[in-house]
Amino acid sequence: VQLVESGGGSVQAGGSLKLSCIASAYNTESGYMGWFRQAPGKERERVASIDYDGTTLYERSVKGRFTISRDNAKNTVYLQTNSLKSEDTARYYCAAEETYWGQGTQVTVS
Fold first, then answer.
1. Which parts of 1-110 are beta strand (E)?
2. Helices (H) and strands (E) in the chain, counts
3. 3-54 tens-digit pLDDT
4. Tens digits of residue pLDDT in 77-102
5. Which residues are 96's β-sheet partners?
6. Alpha-carbon torsion 10, 14, 20, 21, what sign?
7. Are 107 and 8 in contact (CB under 8 A)?
8. Which strands form 76-81's sheet, in the order they lie side by side?
């Protein structure tokens, strides 16, 4: 299983980014996929998740600003991040079943 994230970058507060996670050898449609983040000196936290039946969950601080979705045809999971704040600065990771992890993509909000 390989997960590859992309879409991170540096944005000003209030801006948006769309993160992508392409999965290989794993069916994102039938599994549990999540986006996590880790800021320097802080523990990793789950930001959003989507289950096989489409049920989504969000961490309280991002609810209403972030949206997790998936494109089954592309075996890709997305995280649309809007109204970004400085406290959203972190490295964002995609995970499948919280077992397989990508290398992450950096999001920096100034």
1. 2-6, 9-11, 17-24, 33-38, 45-50, 56-58, 66-71, 76-81, 90-96, 100-101, 105-109
2. 0, 11
3. 999 999 999 999 999 999 999 988 888 889 999 999 999 999 999 999 999 9
4. 999 999 999 999 999 999 999 999 99
5. 33, 100
6. positive
7. yes
8. 2-6, 17-24, 76-81, 66-71
